[in-house]
Amino acid sequence: MLSNDLSRGEIAQKYKIVRPLENQTKNRHNSIRGVDCSMIIFPPNADILSPIDDHIFKTLLTHPDAKPVLIDVLSSSINRNITDATVRNNELPVSDDNEKGERFDVNCIIDHKDQADVEMHGSHIQELDDAHTSFINKCMYYLTDLHSSQPSKGKKYHELARTYQITFCNYTIYSQRKDYITRASMRAEDGAQITDQINFILIELSKLDEILKKPVDKLTPLEMWSIFFKFAPDVKRRDIVNKVIAEKEELRMASTLLMEISQDEHQRAKYRSRRMFETDKFHNEATIEERSMLKVARIMKADNEPYEKIMRYTGLIIAEIEKL
């Protein structure tokens, strides 16, 4: 349910969520399933599901009645006016939830030629260093794989499509950079662009503090989308999210669809299942790591290694080592 205090009908009346009469003409660019998007805001206590969930993110971008949402997200991210986008992998397979890269990315053709892959990265992936090498290498792998997978037979090289990998990430990758967006292509040492054929775009949703201080009418479209994706479920940020929604028709469409998804008990059950899966996975991985450190500490203690050395190698404190 959207609220513990209001019924669905009361919410519709209070917040002017109206359904046109059947004999009225429905405009697919400002309504979803007959709901007028022009008046949508999130109620103060509404329990809204998070667009950072990759399943919900893909639903928002691939819903058949919300094509302008995808076009606007692409235009804002690429920083180019896009007039059309066609999704190539619209179906959500029912296989393993862990197959994230194949399951929840949005692969599309833009303006009948170029291609883009859009994904939401909400959960940390395992890293062996603080430079997020695995994350960056994964993005580069899928970017170049998508670019090289386009049919080349019968094409001249100058006819090959430009490829964009657009990744929204809920945690910080480039801690040394203050900007929340990184746009990268192949460049020479002096910064001159060599080619715009392959393009990497990273939006770090963990870096929005300064953006939140800006007046809403001064926000860029990408800043608006970033605030919406990051803070839609946050009741403490509900005021700024609603102001952002009111500024842009495509955001009103996305908020309409997100409210509809949030009302769907089946969708909520699936959302809870995914959160439980991720929590259990994190717990199991952390437990395995802890057991490994305890095993190393026992061996080092049996070899009479100094406690300081055991602490340095395992992260354990003296009290924990003494119990071994």
Describe this protein with a few key phrases.
324 residues, single chain, disordered N terminus, two-stranded antiparallel sheet, 2 domains, six-stranded mixed sheet, alpha/beta
Strand order of the largest sheet: 3-4-5-6-8-7
How many domain modules?
2
Number of DSSP helices?
A: 11
Beta-strand share of residues: 5-15%
The stretches of 5 or more residues where confidence is low (pLDDT under 50) are: 1-28, 93-102
Computed over alpha carbons, the radius of gyration is: 23 Å
The end-to-end distance, rounded to whole angstroms, is 50 Å
Overall form: globular
Number-wise, the strands total 8
Roughly how much helix do the residues carry, as a percent range? 40-55%
Mean pLDDT: 80
Q: Major sheet: size, sense and barrel closure?
A: 6 strands, mixed
